[in-house]
Amino acid sequence: MKAGLIFTLATVLAGTNASPGDKLPISASSDIQVAQEQLKILISHAKYIVKSAKKSFSPTCKPGNVQIRKEWSTLSPRERIAYTDAVRCLQKKTAKSPASWAPGAKTRYDDWVATHIDQTLQIHYTGNFLGWHRFFLWEYEQALRNECGYQGTQPYWNWGLSAETGMEQNPVWDGSKTSMSGNGVYINQTGLEVVLGGNGLPEIYLPVGSGGGCVESGPFVNMTVNLGPASLTVPGNITVVSPNGPLSYNPRCLKRDLTDELNTRFANFTAIVDNILAPKSVYDFQMQMQGVPGSGIIGVHGGGHYSMGGDPGRDVFTSPGDPAFYLHHGMIDLVWTAWQMLDPENRVYGKDAIAGTNTFLNQPPSANTTLNTEISIGWAGRGVNVAMKDVMSTVAGPFCYVYA
Ligand SMILES: *[C@@H]1O[C@H](CO)[C@@H](O)[C@H](O)[C@H]1NC(C)=O
Ligand SMILES: *[C@@H]1O[C@H](CO)[C@@H](O)[C@H](O)[C@H]1NC(C)=O
Ligand SMILES: *[C@@H]1O[C@H](CO)[C@@H](O)[C@H](O)[C@H]1NC(C)=O
Ligand SMILES: *[C@@H]1O[C@H](CO)[C@@H](O)[C@H](O)[C@H]1NC(C)=O
Ligand SMILES: *[C@@H]1O[C@H](CO)[C@@H](O)[C@H](O)[C@H]1NC(C)=O
Ligand SMILES: [Cu+2]
Q1: Global confidence as pTM
Q2: Residue of the nearest CA to atom 7 in ligand 3?
Q3: Domains along the chain?
C-alpha cells in the first residue's frame, strides 16, 4: 500500500471526531447496565467515525460498500445457520497445508488452526498481536464467503451479554441449532482448578466450569478436532501435549467447559468499557486486554478464551480449533477498533499504532514490530502476505468492514 494513502486515511479519520447525539463516556461505569450503554455509544462512535469520511478508503473500499459485522443474537436464525453451515463446509474441504509440514491438517478449516499453532509464540504478547489476528479473522471470513458460499459477515460474541445472563442462556452458547453449539457434557471436576503459568511465569488459578466433556448438541455436535494439543491446560494442574507433536493427526471430540465465573469476572461490560477507555497507549491497551503477566488478571482476551474452556479452548496454540474462537476474536477486534477510533490520528498509523516486538514477551529478544513488519498466515487464507501498515484500519488495505 502507498504511504500517501495511509496518511490521507489518517487525516480523513482524524478530521471527524464527534458523533451526533450521545456524548462519549470518559471512564467505565461500575454499574453494569450503565457500562452496557457506554459500550453501545463507543461502538456506534467507531462506526460513525469510519463511515462519515467522504473519500474512499482504498481502491476497493468506499463508504458506500463497507460491510457490517454484527453481534450473534442480532443475526436472524437463518443467518446464524448460514454461518455455521459455511464453517461446516470449510471443515469438509481439503487442507492446503502440505502433509509433510502438518500431517494433522486434514481440512481447509485446519489450515487456520495449523497456522495459529505454528506461530503462537510470534503473535501473542507481541507488537503484531492485534493486527495479525485481524488479518487471520478476515481471511477466515473471506474463505467462508469465497469457498463456501456464505453471504454474510463474521459475527462476534459480545462477552458482556453472556456475563449478564449466564453463558448457556446466551444465543452463542445455548446449544440450539442456531447457536455455536453449547456446553460440553458434565464431568465431575469437583476440587480441581485450572492452573496457568509455569515456564517462569507466575501461576494463576482459575475455576473449572459446568461442563468439561464433548459438545453434545448444536451445529458442531460431531465435530472432530484434528490438530493439537500443543499446551492444553486440563483441570488439576495438568498440561497435555499431543504425543507426536501439535501438527500431527490427533482426532478427538470438541470439548467445552463453559465457565460463567470467568466470563463475569474478566469480561463483563465494565471490563470491556474500561479496556476501551482507560489505556492511553497501545502498550497499555494490549497488556490490559491480554492480562499483565504476574498480575493474576487475564484480561478480556483470556477471560473469553478460558470461559469457553475445554479442548482446544484452553490451549493457546490450538484455540482456533473451536469454531467459537472466531466470534471471540471478532469482539477482540471490535474493542481494538473502538479504542483506535477514540484517537485515530495517533492510534491507526501514529505513535500509538504499534508497541512490542515479534516474540512472546520479547523472549527470545527480537526486533520491534513496525508498520513495515510483514504478516503471513501460511496456508490459511489466499497466500497473500501483508505488512502491519495494511492491517491497521478496518477500511484500508485488504479490509472493508465496521462493527455494529
Ligand atoms: C463429584 O465428586 C466428588 C468427589 O470427588 C463428590 O464428593 C461429589 O458428590 C461428586 N458430585 C457429583 C454431582 O457427582
Ligand atoms: C453424531 O455421531 C453419532 C455417532 O456416529 C451419530 O449416532 C449421530 O447421529 C451424529 N449426530 C449428528 C447430529 O450428526
Ligand atoms: C503445578 O505443576 C507444576 C509442574 O509440575 C508444579 O511446579 C507446580 O507446583 C504445580 N502447582 C500446583 C498448584 O500444584
Ligand atoms: C467486572 O470486571 C471487572 C474487571 O475485570 C472486575 O473488577 C469486576 O469485579 C467485575 N464485576 C463483577 C460483577 O464481577
Ligand atoms: C523498540 O521499542 C522500544 C519501546 O518503544 C524503544 O525504547 C527502543 O528504542 C526500540 N528499539 C529500536 C531498535 O528501535
Ligand atoms: Cu491467537
Answers
A1: 0.94
A2: 198
A3: 78-387 (1.10.1280.10)
